[in-house]
Amino acid sequence: MIDAMIAGFTYRSDPIRIVFGAGAISALRAEADVHKMSRLIVLCSTSRADLARRVTASVADRCAGICDASEPNMPRAAFDRVMDDIKRFNVDGFIVFGGGSPIGLAKAAAAATKLPYIAIVTTYSGSEMAARWRIGIAGNQQSGDDVAALPATAIYDPALTLDLPVRMSAASGMNAMAHAVESLYGPDTNPVVQTMAEEAIRRLGASLPRLVDNPRDLGARTDVQYGAWLAANFRAEVGLEHAIAQRVRQWFDLDHAYTHAIATPYAIGFNAAAAPEAMERIKRALGVPDAARGLYDLNVRLGLPTGLKGLGMREEDIGKAVEVVSAVTITHPRAVSKTDLAEVIRQAYFGEPPRF
């Protein structure tokens, strides 16, 4: 039964071809044909260069080289290496293999060159679906928002995620969860987004524990990757969770996915009273009586750290964290004062169950 007429809304679908499913990597050459890539390079991290070479073997005859410049946090030196290789090899496109760091670097390169690229996605961060890009860290950062940063095709083959370490998989999955829950109450949310986000939360909440229990469970890996893709389809304007996670991890050199996993329950707890419909969707999707505590307990179930202290942040850094996060424009239902930020970050530091 439909309770009320759906209000009018605006929804933009980004022009990315999606190839999804076990064995999807077999479509790589055909996708290169679609985008008229005849001379390309493969972008990846140093540790995954050999695997990237094997995975892209179907286009080896078109590959001018492997650029293993990717590093966490997209340092400018890595961006400069990519740009040098693009010019040196005179390519008409490129392939990026990996997760958030190489894909983030690829987005910046694509925004600068307007070249098409194919993303072979091996984690759950969802970076490939966001037009926002940046290079550099903390105070030395350049960023933008450009549809040219998006891949021409994103290939999701769950079989390529089977060897992703368990804790990394869990943290990356909770990074996807952060996208889904904040999209429920962003100022530009809409019924399409809310439907996708709730389904993403449901799939991630159900399949991440299965993945942790059996990392080689292809069905669980498929559900997690699908949930992550659903979560990545829409990004709310910067909410409290992303403001905290992105700024804190940049300033204090903390792991990206783990920081998002930790911050999410506390941001949801802070917003609970101001976003009751979003909380109901989260509770329904996870099958829990409290949204924030349900997300916190999921972190515990997955064996993830619950506090920033566990990532190496120091208690004396809390004041600086409040300062750098308060410089961000945070858009969501409940206004955030510096006093509020201090309490949220203090709770997130110590890692006790959220209390607001």
Keywords:
single chain, 356 residues, alpha/beta, Rossmann fold, Dehydroquinate synthase-like, alpha domain, 2 domains, two-stranded antiparallel sheet, 13 helices, 8 strands
Sequence-ordered SSE layout with sheet pairings:
Elements: E1 17-20, H1 28-34, E2 40-45, H2 49-55, E3 63-70, H3 76-89, E4 93-98, H4 100-113, E5 117-121, E6 132-137, E7 140-145, E8 153-156, H5 166-183, H6 191-213, H7 218-232, H8 240-251, H9 256-271, H10 276-286, H11 291-301, H12 318-326, H13 338-350
Parallel strand pairs: 1-8, 2-3, 2-4, 4-5, 5-8
Antiparallel strand pairs: 6-7
Helix pairs in contact: 3-4, 5-6, 5-7, 5-9, 6-7, 6-10, 8-9, 9-11, 9-13, 10-11, 12-13
Provide a short characterization of the protein structure:
This protein has helices spanning 28-34, 49-55, 76-89, 100-113, 166-183, 191-213, 218-232, 240-251, 256-271, 276-286, 291-301, 318-326, 338-350, and strands at residues 17-20, 40-45, 63-70, 93-98, 117-121, 132-137, 140-145, 153-156.
Describe, in plain words, how this protein is organized in 3D.
With 356 residues, this protein is an alpha/beta fold. It has 2 domains: 17-161, Rossmann fold (3-Layer(aba) Sandwich), CATH 3.40.50.1970; 167-350, Dehydroquinate synthase-like - alpha domain (Dehydroquinate synthase-like, alpha domain, Up-down Bundle), CATH 1.20.1090.10. Helix content is 48%, strand content 13%. It has a 6-stranded parallel sheet, sandwiched between helices. It has a two-stranded antiparallel ribbon with strand order 6-7. Helix 5 (166-183) packs antiparallel against helix 6, helix 9 runs antiparallel to helix 11 and helix 9 packs across helix 13. It is globular and about 60 Å long.
